[in-house]
Amino acid sequence: MTIDWSNLNYVAIIIGGFLYMIYGTIYYSILLSNKKEQQTKGPLKYIYSVIIAFISSFFVAILINAAGADTLLQGALIGFILGLTIKMVYVKNMLFGLISKKSTFIAICDHVVIFTLLGALHGWLS
To answer: How far apart, in whole angstroms, are the C-alpha atoms of residue 32 and residue 63?
Structure first.
């Protein structure tokens, strides 16, 4: 399995970064609207979130490219598997008491959905 760097769709990577940000804005504004007092202050969380959105889109593009996925469904499946892998990390952290069950559920849903969407986007536009 090799990565063809020249075959990466950089427009899709940018679109994926914006998709991640839009999804996150909607998802977390709904779920955390009454938890404003618990959030950290300052712009650092937003700057970090933007960087993570584009890095995540870039990494998904690399995985889609390396796997040779070239359809929306193939990409969605790879993104879904990636989301499930991240889910396992959150469940482990919950089992060790590092995060609450509610926070685990919120994070799991977020990551499974967004990585499935990113995979579908990159598979479709590859």
So the answer is: 31
